[in-house]
Amino acid sequence: MSWIPELPLLRRELTELANRRRTYIVRVVGAVILLFFVFLAYSESIGARQRFVSNAGLTGPLQYMGVGGDVFSRITPLLFYTIQILMPALCCACVTSEKENNTLGTLMLTRLNPGTIILEKFGSRLVPMLTLLLLTFPVLAHVHTLGGVDTDLLIGTLWLLFCECLLFASVAIACSTWFTTTVVAFIWSYVLIGFLAVLTLSLGYTTFVPSAIWRTAFMASQWGISRSQMAVINAVGMGPTVAQSSWLITISKSVPALFATAVFLLFARLTLVRRAFVSQASVLLKVLRVVDVFFTALNERTTGGIELVRDSNPLPADDPVAWRERNKKSLGKARYLFRVLVMLEIPTLFICVLAATASARNDFKGLSVLQGLIWTLAVLVAVVKAATLFSSERAKQTIEPLLATPLSGVELLSQKVVGMRRLLIVLSVPVLTVNLTYFLLHIDFRNISAVSVLRPVVYLLLSISATFVLLHLVTWLSAGIGLKIHSQTKAVLASVAVVTAWTVIPLVIIPLFRFRTPVQELVTTFSPYSAVAATEQYLIEPFMRTNYNQYGQVEEISRLWWACCAIVVYATLTLIIRQVVRMTCPFLLSRRENSSELPPASVTRHAQVAALEGTP
């Protein structure tokens, strides 16, 4: 009897992973990106160290003593961010893929019990991430030789990276066992992770997230001096000694995170069998129905059942596909979208009021964080919905009847996107709520004049334009990717990856080459983030600017032109992407047609009605 378990499911998963070419492509690309950031962190650390020791009179090798700590403090957060971004995407499909392929029932007929299935699936998703992290260990060893990184710090960091992988993988696997589709599991994995991060930051419970433990244990500063800089002071005898944290203490602090991992895995094991054969009905629709029952009962008790807007289900006129999206989908019905709006808007208003009252007049850091979170959520929902417009039809095997309708491919696409219009309006309301808060906070109601109100009004108009343009941009881009990629999961992941890369890459290039301010604005314009950043900087520029013109007046025109140019650029790109997607739509839908030869949908409908009535 062998003491080594066979682990057949783990072996199958790793074999399939090894046979995929993209596995090695991802590893090579990941290694190249990592080395790029290492080079960037190293150059920044050297420059910062030279500025730090210039006043101390240190020359020669002493000025670079402990520079490894500076490099290490810049590389390690990148590794944590990589785990937080990639780990849920790798694990969210481990069980839902079996459900979608109808192979989970066959898997349960084997001798593997549910706990073994969860653990082997868990291990198969950990191996790729740990392999990617192994590529960084030689870099960390080299940084260790540069000084400023003691053994306790290195061992504790490696342990916390491993715990971070375990925690985020367990969250994604729990979502994968509970939900029926990969797309829903993908969304809720990041929602739960975001909620865990917000809970950690707001309540200060840093022991539940390993990355927060690392920041508080190793990167805490004393007297405004970082740990690596303090190592230089201690080396030359210029300051007191800072106590080093033992790696055993770090392991003890990670116990709550390991306990949370075990809870998520236990939840996945208990729900695997119960949720194995649940129908693929919309989970969001069920949640909205429960909320709908609550609001209906509340309305009966408070107003006696008065309805301002009654539900209507009119017959489709000239837009049957758009009618189907608006009246038959959970994120299309007006009352359900109103419920979603209420659930998003009430916390947003509460945080806006709290941040506005707790912040200084010109330093609204709480609102900035809230704005970033809401923009991320809005873009993520729009991307997922647009990317699955046609891939969801293929998954449900309803694409053939849809393509058999007397509508051209362009009309199908246009009506699908028009059906998202209500959703985009709902997503834009919380974003504009934060912008409206900025607008109100920058108006002096005690001394209102045309000059003092002009800037906030222009800011509000720019914010509305930027929100409209960017949401439509990601919608059409994701819809085109969803037409090209037939799988829902791949379409969503590809769309999220493209939008993220487009937004982040220009922002990463700027600190690498250290451009001046005009060039920074030009490079930032290549990122969709520039439309929002330029608008926000236009509002707060008078409170931050230190450069004045020859007459002693604040120069205001540059930020306004930058904001207008960024919005115009991305509005033009939206029209171009929209036109390209419309032109390639018939080919991507495998329909050989000439839209100019097809009659309009209204003519076709009237002809069908006339034929049924027997009229010419």
Which ranges are low-confidence, i.e. pLDDT below 50, for 5 or more consecutive residues?
221-226, 235-245, 543-556, 595-599, 601-616
Based on CA inertia axes, which overall geometry fits?
A: globular
Considering DSSP H and I runs of 4 or more, what fraction of the residues is helical?
Answer: over 70%
In whole angstroms, the N-to-C terminal distance is 84 Å
Roughly what is the average pLDDT, rounded to an integer?
75
Report the portion of residues in β strands: under 5%
Major sheet: none
Q: H/E series, N to C?
A: HHHHHHHHHHHHHHHHHHHHHHHHHH
Describe this structure in words.
The chain is mostly helical and 616 residues long. The protein has two domains: 271 residues, no CATH class; 259 residues, no CATH class. Helix content is 74%, strand content 0%. α21 runs antiparallel to α24. The longest helix is centred in the last third of the chain and has 35 residues. The chain is globular. The C terminus is likely disordered.
